[in-house]
Amino acid sequence: MKLKLPPLLVFLLFGLFMYLLKTYLPVGYFDFFGRDYLLYAICLLAFLIGAISLLQFFRAKTSLDPLHPSKTRVLVTGGIYKYTRNPMYLCLLLLLLALGLYLGNAFNTLLAAGFVYYMNTFQIIPEEEVLVKKYGKAYQKYCVMVRRWF
């Protein structure tokens, strides 16, 4: 797998781009009643998804290293992984959406969509190729049963 940037760095870069977009493109500002509550709810959901997914990996005693998916010891398919194949990346996406709400610039949703595109193209698809080679039909069946994001 030829990954150039770790997912956490990609997340931080997209967060920086969101901040820069809000700062240098002042059009697109939005506000609505309950925006703060929605922001907190999304952050809480992101925290729960991230914590549960990490806990499941720790319990399975498998690798968390996104740069080397071949180091995985077991295929985790239960718990939250019954609903999304990539809950850790979903957590990052939710945090970016929360940041977009906090910054109040509607164009940040385009950057969040760009994050999904980047992650699919340069992280998730290469990971899936490695996992298909490692786990074969079991992983292919899992991919058919569970969606990539949500």
From TrEMBL:
Task: List, alphabetically, the InterPro entries matched.
Answer: Phopholipid_MeTrfase
Q: Which GO terms describe its molecular function?
A: methyltransferase activity
Task: Spell out the Gene3D superfamilies in the cross-references.
Answer: 1.20.120.1630
A GO CC annotation recorded here is: endomembrane system
Q: Which residues cross the membrane?
A: 7-25, 37-58, 89-118
Protein name per Swiss-Prot or TrEMBL: Isoprenylcysteine carboxylmethyltransferase family protein
Main localization is membrane
Keyword match Metal-binding: no
UniProt membrane topology term? Multi-pass membrane protein
Q: Which Pfam families match?
A: PEMT
Compartments in which it is found: Endomembrane system
What keywords were assigned to this record? Membrane, Methyltransferase, Transferase, Transmembrane, Transmembrane helix
Biological process (GO), any one:
methylation
